[in-house]
Amino acid sequence: MTRNRAHDLQRLNILLRLAKVDVESLDENRWNALLDELYLAVFGVGGRSVKLNKAIMAGFDQDAFHTAMTREGVRAAQEGLRATLPILQRMKGQDPAPSFQLKPQRLFLAHGENGFAVAFLCLDGPTMIYTTLAHVLERSGVRQSEIRTCANERCGASHVPLRTPHAGRPSFCSQRCGNLLAARAYRMKRARQLRKKERERSRRRYEEKVHAVLPGTKIARHRRKTR
Q: CA–CA separation, 85 vs 89, rounded Å?
């Protein structure tokens, strides 16, 4: 995978996961962390403190992102994502193409040593998110089959794995979800081991009681029925 595609998939996954974020439950620190992620997704650079190309940003309000990305704006964008992402994952070639309603934008053209640079900027959070989603979907060359659903049933976020999972292995939208399920599986395995040990201890106690009264008595082992 090229560095550019990996970066595009990073931006894409931020937007795909956004559909599952409970914005109302975020405290100020987690909300600011989400804004940092969205800034990276929309502008392709990390951290809201990073200055963009001045030629592109000339005449554009530097606080436009903060103005657009309010909790209300993000919630509005989530509605469109939640309605559209499932369609993207299952649509066939003959199906109607999903669409987003956009607010008016401003097109910026700049020229540098690598040629022309283009940017569509808008003071509307949903429009920023939808246009970025379309851009990185096309630019990254993602196939429908690459879009997975997080194996953490409490999450279920759409995502594109940076590495193709082995056949039969679950795919997670984040390391956090993978860790949560790994910890849950470990607890369940540990509980089974403890139950087995407790059954063995219980059996030994029973045998000791029987042998104390009837020495040498053989005690049959009964196979436990599995449900």
A: 6
- Taking the C-alpha atoms of residue 174 and residue 196, their distance in angstroms, rounded to an integer, is 34
Q: How far is CA 8 from CA 29, 161, 213, in A?
A: 26, 12, 75
**Vertex 139 angle, CA 49 and 17, to 5°:** 60
3-state DSSP call for residue 8?
helix
Please provide the size of the chain in residues: 227
pLDDT, tens digit (0-9, with 9 covering 90-100), for 127-140: 999 999 999 999 99
Give the mean model confidence (pLDDT) for residues 192-196.
81
Using an 8 Å Cβ cutoff, are 68 and 123 in contact? yes
Q: Report CA-CA distances (Å) from 1 to 7, 16, 162, 164, 199.
A: 10, 20, 8, 11, 51
Mutual orientation of helices 125-140 and 28-43 as an angle, nearest 10°?
50
Q: What is the pTM of this model?
A: 0.72
Residue 177 has pLDDT above 90, yes or no: no
Domain boundaries, the chain: 3-173
